[in-house]
Amino acid sequence: MALYLLSRSISEPILDFRAAFRELVKGKRNVRVNLGTKDEFEDLAKHFNEMAEYIDKNREKEEKINDLKSEFISIAAHQLRSPLSGIKWTFKTLLDGDLGVMTTEQKESLERAYSVNERLISLVAELLDVSRIEEGKIGYNFNGTSLERAVEEAVEEYKLIAQNKNIELSFFKPQIALPNMPLDEERLGLALNNLLANATNYTLSGGRVSVSIERVNEEAKVTIKDTGVGIPKGDMNKIFSKFFRASNVVRMQTPGTGLGLFIARNIIEKHGGKIWVESEENKGSSFIFTLPINNHKQGFVVDDLSADDLVGEE
Amino acid sequence: MDKPNSEPVTLQPVNDNGNVKVLLIEDDRFLRELIAQKLEREKFQVMQAVDGEEGLRKLGEQKPNIVLLDLILPGLSGFDVLKKIKEDSANASMPVVILSNLGQREDVERGLSLGASDFLIKAHFTPQEIIVKIQGILAGK
Ligand SMILES: Nc1ncnc2c1ncn2[C@@H]1O[C@H](COP(=O)(O)OP(=O)(O)OP(=O)(O)O)[C@@H](O)[C@H]1O
Ligand SMILES: [Mg+2]
User: Which ligand neighbours the alpha carbon of A197 most closely?
Assistant: First the structure.
């Protein structure tokens, strides 16, 4: 009997501590242990509480920095848009010959400058998207939409680009038409766009890109497969992170920022789906994503993800 | 965006821009002049305003056919200006095109729900493309 009492007075505080540590690790605020046992455990609890307070403070600081960071990006991006528009409009005015006729050489060099400026403009748009994602401020509007049509439209947009690069682009519909699904059409279009941009960018002339949709149980599965440069083994798990570009494409000197996949993954996951890649260097890549056919989300949903969640679960 | 134009349709050949008065409300002088030059080259009549107050005043005095409106302005914001234009029955049917650096979904939705005919992000359009938009709206498309 006495033994039992003793062991309970030991095990109970330990269970308390265990629960408290769990909460703390999960990221909970204000986790404190109050025992009032007047023994070593109470002493331990005091130290635990000091530690928890210290962790709370640091987390707050980190969050503030994160907020400031995305606010900074957003302000900077808006500030950049005015001068970038000014440059664009001036170049265009010159290229249109409004200020006099130019020689072919002058025109060509101006066209190069124009396209570099366009690159900057789309970088600003990407940065704004990313900072919005990180602030968790993006609202989604899920409406019954045909996935098939959305994919087909995206493919259609890349027909000409593929043709100019001498890449064969094909689209395969599912055998049995899918029902309408709750999708944010605009955002999904952006994700598809980013994936198709990659497939056509990182595939050499004479290659093939194919896009297919199939149904797997209660999910729709979209595959974007190319016969392009592929992804080096060591880089496979990094390509969905912000600003990462694999060594082979950096060597090719293709333009890019490393944000397209980060944005695409975020959009797919907000739809309750998953995205992954299968690839072999110099052979090609398949980007595959799934979307639940019966998404639990409907209508307008405000994204409540905080930056921490995006670093990855666990 | 696809709001029907309630103004009596005075159909003009597209290249006859001479009778069209455009009011440009934009605080950035460089951008304002670039657009104004292009519009003038295309024979539009152009009025310029550097902020919302001046814009509303010129709008009342000179009755433009269409307004190009920036959103981030000193003093009254572009949204405020838009609201005031649409509240006044004298010019509620005047088409207003927002031309802005903003462009997040909420901004676009807010602009359109306040009655803007279209929402253009500056950096994503060339002056020529902006003019084509204006012509399309005036033609009642
Ligand atoms: N289809 C593909 N084939 C080969 N490598 C790819 C493919 N898609 C993505 N990658 C690799 O993943 C990296 C990240 O892609 P992501 O789309 O995020 O950025 P990016 O294309 O470099 O730039 P951007 O932000 O302009 O899209 C690429 O730089 C490339 O190394
Ligand atoms: Mg990309």
Answer: 2
pLDDT at position A11 is: 81
- Closest chain B residue to A133, measured at CA: B104
Residue B34 lies in a domain: yes
CATH value at residue B124: 3.40.50.2300
**How high is the mean pLDDT of chain A?**
88
Mean pLDDT of chain B: 88
Candidates A265, A312, A262, A309; CA nearest to A291 is A265
Measured CA distances, A19 to A41, A293, B85 (Å): 15, 38, 60
Domain that holds residue B128: 21-138
SS3 annotation, A108-163: HHHHHHHHHHHHHHHHHHHHHHHHHHHHCCCEEEEEEECHHHHHHHHHHHHHHHHH
Tokens 């052979």 correspond to A283
* Candidate of A210, A243, A245 to mutate for ligand 1, largest count of ligand atoms within 8 Å of Cβ: A245
Assess if residue B107 is contained within a domain. Answer: yes
Of A208, A261, A262, A267, the residue with max ligand 1 atoms within 8 A of its CB, to mutate for a pocket test, comes to: A261
What DSSP character marks residue A224? E
In a domain, B101, yes or no: yes
Cα B117 to Cα B11, B95, B132, distances in angstroms? 18, 6, 14
| Residue A5, pLDDT score | 55
**For residue B71, pLDDT beyond 60:** yes
Residues of B in contact with A138 (CB under 8 A): 105
pLDDT tens-digit readout, B11-42: 444 557 878 999 999 999 999 999 999 999 99
- Closest CB to B104 among A82, A90, A132: A132
* Per-residue pLDDT reduced to its tens digit, A125-140: 888 888 878 777 777 8
The reply to whether B100 falls in a domain is yes
Strand order in the sheet with A139-145: A181-183, A139-145, A299-302
* Residue B69 main-chain phi, psi, to 5 deg: -125, 125
**Distance of residue A137 Cα from the nearest chain B Cα, in angstroms:** 10
Bin B126: left if φ > 0, else alpha if -120 < ψ < 50, else beta.
beta
Number of domains present in the structure of chain B = 1
